[in-house]
Amino acid sequence: MVIGIIPVEMRGLRSHWTAQLPNQELVFGQTFSDHMLQVEWVEGYGWSAPEIKPYGPLQLAPSAVVFHYAFECFEGMKAYKDKQGCIRLFRPDMNMKRMNNSAPRVSLPTFDGAQYIECIKELLRVDQRWVPDEYGYSLYIRPTLIGTEECLGVRASNRALLYTICSPVGPYYATGFKAISLYANVREVRAWPGGVGDAKLGANYAPTIKPAREAAKLGCQQVLWLIGEKHELMEVGTMNLFVFWINKAGRRELITPALDGTILPGVTRDSILALTRSWRDELDIDVSEGKIEMAQIASAANEGRLLEIFGAGTAAVVSPVKRILYLGKDINVPLDPSNPNSQAGPLTKRLNDTIMGIQYGDIPHEWSVVIN
Ligand SMILES: *Cc1c(COP(=O)(O)O)cnc(C)c1O
């Protein structure tokens, strides 16, 4: 180690941007709004009064359990501004429910989700100027829960901190859809039966970066996570996976892996299932949750039965897939057969437009929660 190689001005925390950037210059998760929400928990006492304070560094002991044993879970949600200038959330109760499912898995305390949504609303009122008002732009909200006890013993933390920060973000695809290539990873496994793949734990993400960088070297934007000897499909990067095909029975079917404990229960996933089930008769499609094997994808592609594949999550809503690199060979996925220039199939596009329409308040729906 060379002492003194880091210039003085780069030592310590890099201060965050305090200025608001023009929308076009936003990079995901790099600028933060002025304030943060913070609530402490102490075993035997419970939760303290929530506080909204300026965004800034936390003071934590180097022995805090979060740094050693990854006592951490988080959420990802967004605030959208509608045409009237009102701020809206999308199904925030689902994020709270999921966080209260993740927390006990790492022995962190649960909390009242409805009350915490009220706290987040208050934070958004304080930082309302940080919610971009252009369609496609939004304020990403990151609730985070960490164990803070100063202790190297491997056991549950007797102290915790629940905080929320916000980051203005642009549309995932600045110039419309851009279909992605997937690297079907037959070596590393993201989650496994009996594991924690269904909880949004920080510990699930750091190990995914090495395979993602290897995928990038092979020209693929995301990892397609597989499991088992049959190479069953699980998820795409940090998105849920949907396959639209003509199944062996000759039926048009939208299918996504079932929530068997290895799959993160996405809010977008749930919304897509509910919407497509409501369109079932109109579109004459089956909607199902179940196993999908790579061999089935390959044969569907060969036989012209593969229609669309896409990832789904809060960041991009849907992310169309054009190619899967599997065991050294490309499987090409159709986009829109009626339009060679299109970067998304018709069902992928309709889902995107409907969900965004609801999020931005253009389509009235109970999923969209207005903040008064
Ligand atoms: C967060 C996440 C998703 C998507 O969940 P949404 O609630 O739709 O944003 C999917 N898969 C993984 C692994 C995730 O972490």
From TrEMBL:
<keyword id="KW-0663">Pyridoxal phosphate</keyword>
<protein>
    <recommendedName>
        <fullName>Branched-chain-amino-acid aminotransferase</fullName>
        <ecNumber>2.6.1.42</ecNumber>
    </recommendedName>
</protein>
<dbReference type="Pfam" id="PF01063">
    <property type="entry name" value="Aminotran_4"/>
</dbReference>
<dbReference type="GO" id="GO:0052656">
    <property type="term" value="F:L-isoleucine-2-oxoglutarate transaminase activity"/>
</dbReference>
<dbReference type="GO" id="GO:0005739">
    <property type="term" value="C:mitochondrion"/>
</dbReference>
<dbReference type="GO" id="GO:0009099">
    <property type="term" value="P:L-valine biosynthetic process"/>
</dbReference>
<dbReference type="GO" id="GO:0052654">
    <property type="term" value="F:L-leucine-2-oxoglutarate transaminase activity"/>
</dbReference>
<keyword id="KW-0808">Transferase</keyword>
<dbReference type="GO" id="GO:0052655">
    <property type="term" value="F:L-valine-2-oxoglutarate transaminase activity"/>
</dbReference>
<keyword id="KW-0032">Aminotransferase</keyword>
<keyword id="KW-0100">Branched-chain amino acid biosynthesis</keyword>
<keyword id="KW-0028">Amino-acid biosynthesis</keyword>
<dbReference type="InterPro" id="IPR043131">
    <property type="entry name" value="BCAT-like_N"/>
</dbReference>
<dbReference type="InterPro" id="IPR018300">
    <property type="entry name" value="Aminotrans_IV_CS"/>
</dbReference>
<dbReference type="InterPro" id="IPR036038">
    <property type="entry name" value="Aminotransferase-like"/>
</dbReference>
<dbReference type="GO" id="GO:0009098">
    <property type="term" value="P:L-leucine biosynthetic process"/>
</dbReference>
<dbReference type="InterPro" id="IPR001544">
    <property type="entry name" value="Aminotrans_IV"/>
</dbReference>
<comment type="similarity">
    <text>Belongs to the class-IV pyridoxal-phosphate-dependent aminotransferase family.</text>
</comment>
<dbReference type="InterPro" id="IPR033939">
    <property type="entry name" value="BCAT_family"/>
</dbReference>
<feature type="modified residue" description="N6-(pyridoxal phosphate)lysine">
    <location>
        <position position="200"/>
    </location>
</feature>
<dbReference type="InterPro" id="IPR005786">
    <property type="entry name" value="B_amino_transII"/>
</dbReference>
<dbReference type="InterPro" id="IPR043132">
    <property type="entry name" value="BCAT-like_C"/>
</dbReference>
